[in-house]
UniProtKB/TrEMBL annotation:
EC class of the enzyme, as a word: transferase
Species lineage: Bacteria, Pseudomonadati, Pseudomonadota, Gammaproteobacteria, Oceanospirillales
Keywords: Phosphoprotein
Organism annotation: Aliikangiella coralliicola
Ranges for domain Histidine kinase: 171-421
MF GO annotations: phosphorelay sensor kinase activity
PROSITE patterns: HIS_KIN, RESPONSE_REGULATORY
Pfam families, per the entry: HATPase_c, Response_reg
InterPro entries: CheY-like_superfamily, HATPase_C_sf, HATPase_dom, His_kinase_dom, HisK_dim/P_dom, HisK_dim/P_sf, Sig_transdc_His_kin-like_C, Sig_transdc_resp-reg_receiver
Chemical reaction(s) catalysed: ATP + protein L-histidine = ADP + protein N-phospho-L-histidine
Domain Response regulatory: 9-126
EC nos: 2.7.13.3
Name this polypeptide is given: histidine kinase
Length: 431
């Protein structure tokens, strides 16, 4: 442990200056700073202002005696723990000794003082004082370290949220690229079909003009021949069917993009609207969708949701919390993976339950899952922050999260959130 910066302090209290001088000489070189007081009143004003390792207190003094000084010190929160050694000239009977201990003395010394006894007793208290001050310094250092760790932890949690959003952006880019690909290819086909139709339309126009202008029959025939040739080449029936398909495919692609954008919007809106009202079903669907956009895996999903339940919450954070839980479940499942998500109302709470039939967890793992950086995944596969972020978010919403698991059988996460508002009709549906 590091050495305290200042020397320990001893207060010597005696109404006779010679006694003080003798005690000072005896303690010379003990490593402590010596303060003196010649009355009880003076001693009290010093003890209130100074951090002392020990008070050597004469019992018999005119005015306030040693017992009185000790009792006042004992009654004061600030001074009650300062050790006192009574110094007395009289023969100490057991009644006096008891009175002294009752008023807060830790020891007695008889006059004339034996230097070896005085120094060895004082040394014990100086050692204690040194240790106590070292502990105080350590305590302060630990408090600061604790504060720094907490600060670093919340900064990490924040960066994990940002990282999740980054991860999400990558997933979203992939999701958008797919429909964008076929919408672009469909647009190219439509462009080429349009050119074919345009050419045919121009032929019909030329035919109309030839008839109106009463051009020779041969000219009209030649245009009619071009028209029938083009029609043969274009395969109209196929074109019309294909255009119909192209439109419906393009429409569904654009709808997918629209859905992606709606989901993403919730994230950007959330920073603005801390406490919005959101349907819990929509919240879960969104989280599920976010998971699916990040992980390509086949699994069965079973849902059982209460209808029309609304929460007042930071919607993006709740979605992120649920997304982390569902993502873990999807990562845990293997072949024939099933994930069950259900909601239930209990008193004034909504209970959201996410169950999987994945690898499950041993008790030692389960104990630590909400701790930041705890992960059983390989380096680069998991940062161990997902559940700690979920935990923080749910606690911030005055909710609770619990997990149970059986190795080889699966896990269940139960999130409890206080309900903001429920409508009258709460009906369970399954899909
Ligand atoms: N449904 C689950 N089934 C089995 N193990 C789980 C499940 N959920 C969590 N765990 C365990 O809890 C650990 C901590 O989960 P957490 O989500 O905090 O971190 P991670 O998934 O390892 O990494 P990150 O989420 O930061 O990418 C996981 O590594 C895993 O061992
Ligand atoms: Mg995780």
């Amino acid at each position: 442990m590091s050495e305290p910066k200042e020397n320990s302090k001893i207060l010597i209290v005696d109404d006779i200056q010679t006694n003080i001088f003798v005690a000072q000489c005896m303690l010379d070189g003990c490593g402590a700073e010596m303060l003196t007081a010649s009355s009880g009143e003076e001693a009290l004003s010093i003890v209130k202002e100074t951090e002392l390792a020990l008070v050597l207190l004469d019992v018999h003094m005119p005015g306030m005696d040693g017992y009185e000084v000790a009792q006042i010190m004992l009654a004061n929160e600030q001074t009650k723990n300062i050790p006192i050694i009574f110094v007395t000239a009289c023969n100490v009977d057991s009644e006096h000794i008891f009175k002294g201990y009752e008023s807060g003395a830790v020891d007695y010394l008889l006059k004339p003082i034996d230097q070896r006894i005085l120094r060895s007793k004082v040394n014990i208290f100086l050692r204690l004082d040194k240790q106590q001050r070292q502990l105080k310094t350590k305590h302060k250092e630990l408090q600061k370290a604790y504060y720094d760790i907490n600060k670093a932890q919340s900064e990490l949690a924040r960066s994990k949220k940002l990282a999740s959003i980054g991860q999400l952006a990558a997933g979203v880019a992939h999701e958008i690229n797919n429909p964008l690909g076929f919408v672009t290819s469909n647009t190219n086909s439509l462009q080429s079909y349009f050119n074919d139709f345009k050419m045919l339309f121009q032929l019909y126009r030329a035919l109309e003009q030839a008839i109106v202008e009463q051009k020779p029959e041969a000219a009209v025939h030649s245009i009619l021949k071009d028209i029938s040739k083009s029609k043969q080449q274009l395969d109209f029936d196929f074109l019309l069917d294909d255009i119909k398909d192209i439109f419906s495919e393009t429409k569904s692609g654009l709808e997918r993009v629209k859905k992606i954008i709606t989901n993403l919007k919730v994230f950007s809106d959330a920073e603005v609207e801390e406490n919005s009202s959101i349907g819990i079903e929509q919240c879960i669907e969104s989280s599920l969708w976010l998971v699916k956009s990040q992980i390509q895996k086949e699994f069965k999903i079973e849902k059982s949701f209460c209808k029309d339940v609304e929460l007042i919450c930071n919607a993006s954070h709740i979605k992120l919390a649920l997304m982390n839980i569902i993502l873990n479940a999807v990562q845990a499942i293997q072949e024939n993976g099933v994930i069950r998500i259900s909601t239930e109302i209990r008193d004034d709470d909504i209970i959201i339950c996410v169950q999987d039939n994945g690898v499950g967890m041993e008790q030692e793992v389960l104990r630590d899952i909400f701790n930041p950086f705890f992960t059983t995944k390989a380096i680069g596969e998991g940062s161990g922050l997902g559940l700690s972020v979920s935990f923080d978010i749910i606690k911030q919403h005055n909710g609770d999260i619990n997990a149970t698991s059986r190795p080889g059988e699966g896990s269940e996460f139960v999130v409890t959130l206080p309900l903001a508002r429920t409508t009258d009709k709460v009906a369970a549906t399954s899909s």
